[in-house]
Amino acid sequence: MQTLRLLAAAVLLAPAMSAQYIAYFGTYTKPSKSQGIYACRFDSSTGKLTAPTLAAETPSPSFLAVHPNGRFLYAVNEINGDGMVNAFAIDRSSGALKPLNHVSSRGNGPCHLALDRTGQVLYAANYGSGSITAWPVNADGSLGESTGFDQHTGSSANPDRQKGPHAHGTFLSPDNRFVLTPDLGLDKIFVYRVDAAKAALPANDPPFFQTAPGSGPRHLAFHPNGKFVYVLTEMGITVVGYRWDAQRGAAEQIQTINAFPAGTRMSGAEIEVHPNGRLLFASVRGDNSIAVFQVDPATGKLTAAGRTPTEGKTPRGFAVAPGGKFLLVGNQDSDSVFKFAIDEKTGALTKTGEPLQIGSPVSIVFVR
Q1: Is this prediction's pTM over 0.90?
Q2: How far apart are the first and last CA of the chain?
Q3: Same structural domain for residues 213 and 343?
Q4: What is the C-alpha separation between 330 and 318, in angstroms, rounded?
């Protein structure tokens, strides 16, 4: 009996002790620079990264998403005209990606995608045409025919960039009841109810909440406690904090804080809350930095805690690695990925190790 208890304990502890991951990098493909999705090994304890290899050849797979079961990976093809979404099976021994199928994104310039937390539905945002699409996910990881679609309409304050809708992301609430879509062109964050059975996109009531006119909401991140949501504006270069009503799918603004002083050559890109709930990071292009904020978990309010250069040009996407010890950031216009050690108390970032050379890196995801 004691032996059985020890074996059971070992099985339970093994996943927690394991520190080995595959890091996948989405890119913009360019001749002689990038051919698709790249992969390398990552040790979450030491931060060690192996040299990247080409995992799948596909055009401009700018943003990636991993199925909750860790067996499948999905990528948008951010191309002019009708966009595509690709499904792949993951070979976790080699990191290679086997194509399963691809489907139309039903819009122009798909730029972001996410799965619901059960892995039954995939959502994608079409930036160019300002629409959201949903697909059922089959048992083998392939995508079925789209059963959910919503076309945004309208405009906002900036005549150059907000003449029409520009959906910029799909983000699931922690309880998997809602999917949120920031629309840069409308200064709105649309809220849909998750319908895993039908892979539909029923609008919530209320159907959206807003940012300031001309601010251009881009991406968002929930606090681990589920009580707060933070929206990064691309044009305003601000982080807007909201108190999240998980029952109604509604948000009440509590704070707006600058990620960087507004400037025509600066723009916000990516945002993430550290798993400890005490730190928030945001990337700023033009300034080429990661803005760091400390979070009060009780009130949700942020305090600026400095900025760290990303050692390259145009930091698009970044990710806090599993374990919370390291942050990886992709510099799109200098073809590099840098790794930083995170001080989990202050949020200070310290460059560590040699950079990875990857052409036009955009997004980063991890698979155990």
Answers
A1: yes
A2: 31
A3: yes
A4: 6
